[in-house]
């Protein structure tokens, strides 16, 4: 008779059976480790008992038919390992399930705050939190730059900025080199419209400082914008890749954060919101005025952290010079004792949010004119270091207003700029003093 019949079922031992057997064997071995009896026969018998217990445990394990336990049940006893993929952006499509998990993120934990760090040869700045470190590599490329931010829990961001002169090959090479260091297990393309909707409804940080700008990214959200989010379950990481136009530059951002650290998941959104130009930034100019040889209109980026796109119009002043004022600004001429004031304001701003340009009466001494300005605008003399002070800035917390003035000399005569900026509704757009300074800097006499 054949002892190896094909009808015989193999015994599959569940994990619990192996555990019982192993425990019985270990218990027998533990007994052996105890002080050995003097009688050698007793000692040998102990070993036999331990082995026998292990065999008995296996002997009385009931046979389990593999067909009685489908694959779905056995799958729970081992964790599926997802395959890692090389990053090829062209292969990543929209994944609705993943998108629903990664798009909306909690606000970034600002901790103890941070400060601005310059990038792209000082042309822009980005906010780095106090426990973050920024390393700027300056001209890493022929027509671009690289900056790296490193933070807690392995946070790592790479910011690449390219000037208009950069070729597509130069940018593609930098992108390929950057992405070659990473692998993902799951990925999705993030539609631009989803980003727009997200920014309108969600705060980037846990601070009210950026609440006004929750719907703002430094990048353009248009048809050329590319945004991908990837996860690597084996490494426990979340990656964001962003490629977009930022002002007149091309930006590539790659962000690598731990996917279990809720306070860091919005790091990409925060960085995209906190990149600002260091100074007023001319975006474009309109046609030239034949009479004065200057652009009729200029599009500027102004305001620093509160940056805003502004349209400036060429303005011809009655004193015989041209400059630029904000589109739609209203003008009021005021004759005062010792000086003449031209007050500029916007129709939509409050009464105490404006700037002025004025000319001092040459018949009055400079010191007297300063005191006239100080008293005429209601400035507190105790905050001014004598009448020799040419510029003055003072914030009055009781009314949440900043007042500033500065004396400037042009063609041998004294002029001044003054601004009053109401902050009761927050820091909105470029400050009035910045607009006033821009006005006086652009003055060109005929």
UniProtKB/TrEMBL annotation:
Transmembrane segments: 43-64
Keywords of this entry: Membrane, Transmembrane, Transmembrane helix
Superkingdom as given in the UniProt entry: Bacteria
Protein name: DUF4367 domain-containing protein
């Amino acid at each position: 008779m054949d002892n190896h019949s094909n009808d015989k079922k193999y015994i599959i031992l569940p994990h619990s059976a192996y555990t019982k057997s192993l425990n019985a064997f270990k218990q027998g071995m533990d007994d052996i480790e105890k002080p050995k009896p003097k009688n050698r026969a007793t000692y040998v018998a102990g070993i036999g008992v331990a082995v026998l217990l292990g065999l008995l445990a296996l002997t009385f394990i009931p046979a389990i038919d593999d067909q009685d336990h489908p694959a779905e049940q056995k799958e729970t006893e081992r964790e599926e390992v997802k395959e890692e993929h090389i990053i090829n952006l062209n292969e990543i499509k929209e994944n609705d399930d993943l998108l629903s998990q990664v798009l909306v993120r909690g606000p970034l934990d600002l901790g103890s705050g941070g400060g601005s760090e310059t990038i792209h040869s000082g042309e822009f700045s980005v906010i780095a939190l106090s426990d973050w470190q920024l390393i700027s590599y300056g001209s890493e490329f022929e027509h671009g730059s690289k900056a790296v931010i490193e933070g807690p829990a392995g946070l790592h961001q790479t910011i690449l900025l390219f000037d208009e002169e950069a070729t597509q090959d130069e940018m593609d090479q930098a992108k390929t080199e950057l992405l070659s260091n990473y692998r993902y297990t799951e990925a999705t393309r993030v539609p631009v419209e989803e980003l727009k909707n997200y920014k309108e409804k969600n705060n980037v940080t846990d601070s009210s400082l950026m609440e006004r700008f929750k719907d703002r990214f430094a990048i353009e959200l248009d048809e050329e914008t590319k945004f991908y989010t990837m996860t690597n379950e084996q490494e426990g990481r979340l990656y964001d890749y962003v490629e977009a136009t930022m002002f007149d530059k091309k930006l590539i951002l790659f962000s690598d954060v731990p996917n279990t650290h809720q306070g860091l998941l919005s790091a990409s959104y925060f960085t995209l919101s906190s990149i600002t130009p260091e100074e007023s930034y001319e975006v474009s100019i309109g046609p030239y005025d034949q009479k004065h040889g200057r652009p009729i209109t200029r599009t500027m980026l102004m305001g620093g952290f509160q940056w805003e796109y502004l349209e400036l119009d060429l303005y011809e002043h009655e004193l015989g010079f041209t400059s630029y004022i904000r589109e739609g600004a209203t003008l009021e001429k005021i004759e005062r004792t010792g000086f003449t004031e031209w007050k500029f304001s916007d129709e939509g701003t409050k009464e105490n949010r404006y700037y002025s340009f004025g000319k001092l009466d040459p018949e009055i001494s400079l010191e007297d004119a300063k005191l006239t300005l100080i008293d005429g605008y209601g400035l507190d003399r105790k905050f001014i270091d004598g009448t020799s002070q040419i510029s003055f800035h003072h914030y009055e917390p009781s009314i949440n207003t900043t007042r500033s003035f500065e004396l400037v000399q042009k063609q041998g005569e004294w002029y001044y700029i003054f601004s009053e900026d109401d902050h009761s509704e927050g820091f909105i757009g470029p400050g009035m003093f910045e607009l006033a300074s821009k006005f006086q800097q652009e003055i060109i006499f005929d």
